[in-house]
Amino acid sequence: MVRFSKDFDLKEQIKEYVLSTIGVMLTALGLVIFFIPNNIAAGGASGMAMILHKLISTVPVGIWMYIINVVLFVLGFLLVGKDFSFKTIYSTFALNFFVDLFDRIINIPKYTGEDLMLAVFFGNVLASIGMAIAFANNSSTGGTDIIAKIISKYFHTPIGTTLLMVDFAIGIFAGFAFNARIAMYALLAIIINGITIDFVLKGLELSVTMMIISKKVDEIKRYILEKMERGATILKAQGAYSGRNIDVLYVALKRRELGEVLNVIRHIDPEAFVIVTEARYVLGEGFRRIDKVV
To answer: Is the pLDDT of residue 223 over 50?
Structure first.
């Protein structure tokens, strides 16, 4: 059983890195095909890089993104602490790599039509889907997230609101670097991107509760406690037909963790009886704090 758990963890890690890579690749395609050619600086390190590229055009956007993210990570480590996972660092610089790859080396076709609304729409479709995939696999693309964390730490502002304000500021600066029309489209792209990702994440953040009845409940419980680092509760029950005393394992999980638990149960005890219920909120340790619920 222990060997299976280690193998399972490794497979999950590989899957998350592969999906995160696909996510940042899609985001890079959205930036390179639609946003960068049209100077739509829709927030983030990419938006800052577009503005700096306008000022110093000899440095490509992809290289500017490397410089910006290195500086931001250094500031983040100094001012916020080691609050960044390796996966976040990997995803951030993977995004830089793909932007530079598609923009300068492969030189994929770019949309340069006059209708900027098409660029905003399709760029957001690619970027939002890509970012949602990355977020769903516990990754982040760094960038202005780090600025938001620094501001939030010292001024005690909500990270979500701060991030939106930082991105808005980048969109406004785009107006000075390019023109007012570009700035308006950049702000529109930021709003659409935020709404889309928020919608997707709300779906992904839904939690579930599980009631598990199994002859091997101790093995399942051990996996949940030790490998997933989730809490669980043993409910004492009695079978109505058999009259036997049984232990029912009750556990709350993020919805994205459900597949992992079901896979573990399937390997440990294919005859287990499982009830899964969606929960709008799960509040407490390991989930959202009750004072963060609107």
So the answer is: yes
Which pLDDT belongs to residue 4? 44
Q: Are 251 and 230 in contact (CB under 8 A)?
A: yes
- Residue with the bigger pLDDT between 67 and 152: it is 67
- Of residues 211, 201, 205, the one with CA closest to residue 277: 211
Residue type, 241: Y
Q: Name the CA dihedral angle for 221, 226, 228, 231, rounded to a multiple of 10 degrees.
A: 60
Angle at 285 between CA 224 and CA 232, to 5 degrees: 30
Q: How far apart are CA 224 and CA 253, in angstroms?
A: 10
Mean pLDDT over residues 248-255, rounded? Answer: 88
pTM of the model: 0.69
pLDDT digits (tens, 9 = 90+) for 117-156: 999 999 998 998 888 888 767 677 778 888 887 887 788 7
Q: What stretch of H or E contains 68?
A: helix 61-79
CB-based contacts of 115: which residues, under 8 Å, 6+ apart?
none
Residue in the structure block whose two tokens are 């949940």: 224
Under DSSP, is residue 56 helix (H, G, I), strand (E, B) or coil?
Answer: coil
DSSP 215-278: TTHHHHHHIIIIIS----EEEEEE-TTT--EEEEEEEEEEGGGHHHHHHHHHHH-TT-EEEEEE
Interval 256-274 mean pLDDT: 87
Say if residues 249 and 232 touch (Cβ distance below 8 Å): yes
